[in-house]
Amino acid sequence: AQSVTQPDIHITVSEGASLELRCNYSYGATPYLFWYVQSPGQGLQLLLKYFSGDTLVQGIKGFEAEFKRSQSSFNLRKPSVHWSDAAEYFCAVGPRNNAGNMLTFGGGTRLMVKP
Amino acid sequence: KAGVTQTPRYLIKTRGQQVTLSCSPISGHRSVSWYQQTPGQGLQFLFEYFSETQRNKGNFPGRFSGRQFSNSRSEMNVSTLELGDSALYLCASSFRDRGLGANVLTFGAGSRLTVL
To answer: Mean pLDDT over all residues of chain B?
Structure first.
């Protein structure tokens, strides 16, 4: 069965510092990969997605993620964090076939930003 | 373009009652999925509807049900509520990006259910 692991439950970084959120997945084949962000009391907003091609993908708000097949990882990065980036971040995997939209999510990483 | 709209945003029920949550997808999106989010279990897939048919179902008891109407709007129902059903219920609609050959989900803000 597929699974997604986000090893860091909480991360605190200083504003302006770089950020890397880790995501590892277990899946039968290379899945579709996603990063979502959730602000308090809100739904999930898509940051970026990987379907195929270039393994370094750019997303919104200055985020990027790199797919590493050999490590089954899809880590999220940002070179300089802003206070407004404080939120919870979720990595997710989805099936490549046209069988639907059943995403499997990681447990999330809560990001706190120090001024 | 309006986003995914979920109603109600907040509701409080007591054990044993039932609840119906509504989701209006983005115009043109034919697939609607539902997820439950709790602090203990995280985000879990409930079910997905496409063209009024349930296409996938997660591992939830039969008390959880849903349906989709011809206009793609969807409802989910939870009967005989239990304390553990307290959660944020998220709806997502999607379109199939034919160029990418993949589906892209857009989530609503959720309906927060509290069971007392």
So the answer is: 92
